[in-house]
Amino acid sequence: MKMIIRGGWILLLVLAGGCVQKKEPVEKFFDFRELLDEQTDLLSQHGRSLDKTSYVMNQNSDTTFVPSNDVWKTELELFQQLDEFNKPIYKSEYRIEDGIKDTRSNLKIRQYISETAPIRSMKFYYHEDFVQLKKIEGTIHQNNLLYTNGLVLVMEFEDEDGKPLLSRYTMNGFQKMMLRDSVHYSLEGQVDQ
Prior knowledge:
Layout: H1 2-18, H2 32-45, E1 49-56, E2 59-65, H3 69-76, E3 95-101, E4 108-113, E5 119-126, E6 133-143, E7 147-160, E8 163-177, E9 182-192
Antiparallel strand pairs: 1-2, 1-9, 3-4, 4-5, 5-6, 6-7, 7-8, 8-9
């Protein structure tokens, strides 16, 4: 009897092991984690200071400081939201256009547009080649029975030794909760040498 039970457990383990599927790495449109980690390291190594201005409900706040590596990570964490557009569930929902000429500069634009995904649009501004990234702009829109949110996140870069280095970032958004007034907020960070 013990041999039958032991044999049954072994067979069950073998069958269960055969059902395990290898997860294939998902190809991303753009690796935000890598970009943010690289920016955090570069900004801390260069000892860059940050002039930060925020506005919420008619209240302004200004501050200037030299962030540590951990503080830069916290400052830029907000932009990790843009990684949402890399989720496999949304891949087929984006219309992709590349090489569009920006009418306000000499840059080209690669854009991803969706009518239904939470990240409604992602625009990457670059000079000649995509590795010469100058600006990223993401528009987020969420709507449900309780609230509506809108948010535009922008990161601007300058060339530093052949790599993009963050020079400025902004966040402008609103939240409208049911039966309440809209709340508008903004944040701007200017990176100084």
